Amino acid sequence: MTEFIKKITERIDQSLSESKTxxxxxxxxxxILKYLKxxxxxxxxxxxxxxxxxxxxxxxxxxxxxxVEDLYQSRYGKKFDSKxxxxxxxxxxxxxxxxxxxxxxxxxxxxxxxxxxxxxTFIEHVNDDYVPKRNxxxxxxxxxxxxxxxxxxxxxxxxxxxxxxxxxxxxxxxAVNFRFTVFDECAGGVLLFDDAANAxxxxxxxxxxxAQFGSFQGMKISNACIGFTGNLGALDGTYTNDLSSALxxxxxxxxxxxxxxxxxNRAYEQYNDxxxxxxxxxxxxRNKQDFAVLPDPNEKSGFACxxxxxxxxxxxxxxxxxxxxxxxxxxxxxxxxxxLAMSTVGPTIGQKLAGYYNSLIRGADxxxxxxxxxxxxxMDELKNKYKGGASAGDIxxxxxxxxxxxxxAVNMIAEAKDPNKEIENASKRFxxxxxxxxxxxxCFALEHFKSKLSAYVTDxxxxxxxxxxxxxxxxxxxxxAINELPDCDIDKREMLLKVxxxxxxxxxxxxxxxxxxxxx
Length: 520
Hints:
Layout: H1 3-13, H2 16-21, E1 26-28, H3 29-43, H4 55-76, H5 82-87, E2 92-96, H6 103-118, E3 121-123, E4 136-143, H7 150-154, E5 156-164, E6 167-175, E7 188-194, H8 201-213, E8 215-216, E9 219-220, E10 224-230, H9 245-248, E11 251-257, H10 260-270, H11 280-286, H12 306-322, H13 330-345, H14 347-373, H15 379-386, H16 392-414, H17 419-434, H18 439-456, E12 461-464, E13 467-470, H19 472-483, H20 490-500, H21 503-519
Parallel strand pairs: 1-11, 2-10, 2-11, 3-4, 4-7, 7-10
Antiparallel strand pairs: 5-6, 8-9, 12-13
Helix pairs in contact: 3-6, 12-13, 13-14, 14-16, 14-17, 16-17, 16-18, 17-19, 18-20, 19-20
């Protein structure tokens, strides 16, 4: 159990009434994404694809079903059984957790990945002028916490004339929110009710038929994955209401927390350019306890969570780019970076991050640039700043240097006209630098280089359950280039094999070969 989860549990235990509400399974973002991608895929399957009098829509429905069946087979290795799925009620997930832990983002990420797999166009925002198209996948997020009127939320009443048994009469109907009507004209989408846990009771009552029957104010919502999110109310300082027991019995509640490694993988893929994450991931991997903290209701500044860190990365990237870009704009940006850090993740962690950036920008980064990008290694300067990694400050510098070297090497490869031709040269420059570091910093450098390269150059990698991973031939090329360097001694070579290649598999193969040789 992480320190963050322990703190949450302590706060929950302080209030018996609140603690009962959160006795639910704890899942990280990667686990949640698996659930959501499955649910989104099933929601796109048309149980009744034939539309009388509309041949075009019928054809599209049949094509969508074929895409869903093929992707299901590919993902799960099992044929899609429409009869079985038709009998299974698709309950909505209700993701609970502190603000900024990726609850809403999980739905967006799962939707984007499914769209990519099915060749659909992802529409993240539906405004009043939006025109739905067949190949669109729409993301509709309805904020619940600020709503307290069933009329504005559920639909404005309007009179309408209808004919029943040959008799005309006026009845009262509702004008439903336009955004809820677009799903049937698209491939599908996600209808997410954000912060439903803290919605007024009257709004939670409106959501009951949505959760149970997939209908809103009498209108069936087709081809949409319905979801809910909720903060912790009094436990995290958000708007507070009691979560409806009736709503809880119609959904699958799960407690969600993000973790540093999952965040790092997403950041590498999101910011895969010359600026990258500008060292934030290295800071978090070295200070995991600072990744997420529970907000103090008495504090007015920001607090650390995955949303805050993502916002900080974007803000720092913008400032550095404005001041000249990577390798030039960091020095000019230091003062602004300090202010952004303390505002975004709070004064305590922000001050710590400011010290980290002072060392990174004024020492490790420009030195790494000399070694890797310029190809002019300055061994004397490295020895002077690193001093063999004997002190805590030296070790911290070593990790910063390792990160910057990996960044510049990956940029060299990714920005080359032919990355396949550049990988050996960049790996040698990178290896020449990081081989000067102690074992722990050296291994960190290799892991960082490998992870970042797999996200930046997707032709070099393949998707796995743990994120993207470099292909075997690419890893061999890197290992061979570094192994041939003069400073790669026996100990470094062994670590190189462990981190870059499938060392365990390699050892097993060697043992098997020896056994076969002995038998023959």
